[in-house]
């Protein structure tokens, strides 16, 4: 399908019962696919995406949110396990010389080609709803290359070094997003979780300008960019985030969703923010229903709200809890 995604997102938010969780990995267990194998195989990725699209009432299909992929393409070391999402280990860039020497990889390096092909295969199978690809944001990718703790110090001590790496990660992410668009994706979710640890001024320097550059480079009427930030400081950054120009904004469970909506312009589409780990992994179906219904009641009457999870749903989430999430979405907002 090819649709005007801005209009589609607003229509989705205005339709009672709709929900768009960031959901793909839990289908691996349903299909008996080890996560460590899934993240290396485009056909299995398409199977998982199609499984969620065909077995839930999700408003759109979402690809795997594996935030190790892009850093691996740059040369970072990755630790794989059979049952969990891969993680970056070690520090690839630690000083000015390493930043200057860092090469921008071609799209297709590492597992990026696998992920693009997974979208291409999934698009052939999912014809009744949009398909969103997932990728990391520029500051979060830079943090994985420079170490997520060390980068906080470098932002103060060596800001030019951080900007050198940000320039390179942004150039790569623009090319990567374009590859997803060419493969048939109807949009992308840019996950910028590490920016959630930054204060307002630091986010304005080290994250927002680069995110906006990506949005401006790839977003069109039929290709939406959804910005994700799961930090608890976003309530203080609403004007700056809105200025990014994303088609929608996705918030984590660290913030009060009703408060975010109250601070947002009426035409700023906001998504969130059921706790994926605390509830969908560790909660019960009854607790999921109760929490979803409570959130819907708190956000009732807001036409710019679309129910989602606060972040990517982990692979070990209980399928009965996922079904309870959709059941509550359907019954809690009629």
Total number of helical segments? Answer: 17
Gap from first CA to last CA: 27 Å
The string of secondary-structure elements, in order, is HHHHEHEEHHEHHHEHHEHEHEHHEH
Report the sheet-strand fraction. 5-15%
Helix content: 40-55%
Structural category is alpha/beta
Strand order in the largest sheet: 1-4-5-6-7-8-9
pLDDT average, as an integer? 95
Extended strand count: 9
Radius of gyration: 19 Å
Q: Can you tell me the residue ranges where pLDDT is under 50 for at least 5 consecutive residues? A: none
Shape: globular
> Main sheet, how many strands, which sense, barrel?
7 strands, parallel
Notes on the protein architecture:
The structure is a single chain. The chain has 334 residues and is an alpha/beta fold. It has 17 helices and nine strands. It has a seven-stranded parallel β-sheet with strand order 1-4-5-6-7-8-9. A two-stranded antiparallel ribbon has the order 2-3. Helix 4 (42-55) packs across helix 7 (112-125) and helix 7 (112-125) packs parallel to helix 10. The model has no long low-confidence stretch (mean pLDDT 95).
């Amino acid at each position: 399908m090819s649709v005007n995604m801005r209009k589609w997102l607003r229509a989705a938010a205005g339709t009672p019962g709709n929900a768009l969780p960031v959901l793909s990995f839990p289908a691996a267990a349903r299909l008996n696919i080890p996560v460590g194998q899934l993240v290396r195989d485009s056909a299995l990725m398409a199977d998982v995406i199609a499984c969620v699209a065909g077995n839930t009432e999700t408003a759109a299909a979402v690809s795997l949110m594996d935030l190790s992929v892009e850093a691996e393409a740059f040369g970072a070391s990755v630790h794989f396990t059979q049952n969990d999402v891969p993680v970056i280990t070690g520090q690839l860039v630690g000083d000015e010389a390493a930043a200057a020497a860092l090469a921008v990889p071609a799209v297709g390096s590492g597992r990026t080609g696998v992920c693009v092909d997974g979208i291409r295969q999934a698009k052939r199978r999912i014809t009744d709803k949009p398909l969103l690809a997932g990728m990391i944001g520029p500051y979060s990718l830079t943090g994985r290359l420079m170490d997520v703790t060390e980068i906080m110090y470098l932002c103060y001590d060596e800001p030019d070094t951080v900007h050198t790496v940000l320039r390179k990660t942004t150039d790569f992410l623009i090319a990567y997003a374009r590859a997803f668009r060419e493969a048939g994706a109807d949009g992308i979710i840019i996950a910028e979780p590490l920016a959630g640890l930054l204060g307002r001024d630091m986010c304005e320097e080290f994250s927002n300008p680069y995110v906006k550059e990506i949005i401006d480079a790839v977003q069109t009427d039929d290709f939406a960019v959804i910005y994700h930030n799961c930090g608890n400081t976003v309530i203080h950054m609403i004007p700056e985030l809105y200025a990014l120009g994303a088609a929608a904004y996705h918030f984590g469970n660290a913030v009060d969703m009703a408060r975010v909506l109250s601070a947002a312009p009426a035409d700023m589409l906001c998504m969130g923010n059921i706790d994926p780990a605390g509830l969908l992994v560790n909660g019960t179906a009854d607790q999921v229903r109760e929490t979803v219904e409570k959130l819907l009641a708190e956000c009732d009457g807001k036409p710019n709200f679309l129910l989602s999870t606060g972040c990517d749903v982990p692979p070990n989430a209980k399928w009965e809890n996922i079904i309870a999430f959709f059941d509550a979405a359907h019954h809690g907002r009629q």
